[in-house]
Amino acid sequence: MQAGGPEVVFEGVVRAYGGVPALGPLDARLPAGAFVALVGASGAGKSTLLRMVNRLVEPDSGRVLIGGVPVADRPAAALRRSIGYVFQSIGLMPHMSVAENIRLPARVAGADRGVPAPDVPALLAAVELPADYAGRRPQALSGGEAQRVGVARALATGARLMLLDEPFGALDPVTRDAVGRRYRALHDRLGLTSLMVTHDMAEALLLADRILVLDRGRLVGEGAPADLLAGRAGAAASALVDVARRQAEAIAALAR
Ligand SMILES: Nc1ncnc2c1ncn2[C@@H]1O[C@H](COP(=O)(O)OP(=O)(O)OP(=O)(O)O)[C@@H](O)[C@H]1O
């Protein structure tokens, strides 16, 4: 097993699509081992920022460093093998078993290039799925179970940096809550660095160590959940927190 998750630094990253600015200039730092949530309205640039880390999006200017090394200096394929990527429609191969799906990224990377064969039982245990799920096909899994297989697959090449783009967005609220908390426990156990895009401020407040708030491509607020709740992370962050708080208060009032 590799050492803990690395630090990630964004230095003045800028990106436009077809001449239309989408992101930046933006500076941010994810401390080694942190769980960082990225929130903001639709189109704010969250996925663009996340995908700069594994070079699915290249910045027009500025740079991203992982553990002090610019991602642009590393071949994209090798870089992506070292980073877990979990997204909403996780894309498990329907004709392959769970075990084959988990082994797939390492197989693509090539055992002959020194990529060790994944320990499927250990990975299933890490995401708290029974060992006999290894033989199941994806269609025999619930949405929450499939998402956990996606996390196991993302960890299979030994990645200690995880990018999660609305990972639990398609799950019902109860499953979403349970899978989110399980993932947070896994993050702590393995000492991962995790960057998670979410639309749900309550989820960000409950799971993350730090929250970055994006608005129209700019970082408009940043802090620990306690900072956001105390109104110390800027007006945009407070506005999003107020929505979550009003919902919680309305539910509490209904129960009285
Ligand atoms: N490949 C692309 N081509 C053109 N425009 C794009 C492309 N990808 C993103 N954009 C635009 O860039 C802006 C930021 O998009 P991005 O997907 O990063 O936002 P987001 O905050 O992740 O949004 P959402 O929450 O809706 O997923 C949006 O205006 C979007 O339309």
UniProtKB/TrEMBL annotation:
Pfam families, alphabetized: ABC_tran
UniProt keyword list: ATP-binding, Nucleotide-binding, Transport
Record PROSITE patterns: ABC_TRANSPORTER_1, ABC_TRANSPORTER_2
Entry superkingdom: Bacteria
UniProt domain ABC transporter: residue ranges: 8-241
InterPro entries: AAA+_ATPase (IPR003593), ABC_SmlMolc_Importer (IPR050093), ABC_transporter-like_ATP-bd (IPR003439), ABC_transporter-like_CS (IPR017871), P-loop_NTPase (IPR027417)
A GO molecular function held by the record: ATP binding
The name this protein goes by in its record: ATP-binding cassette domain-containing protein
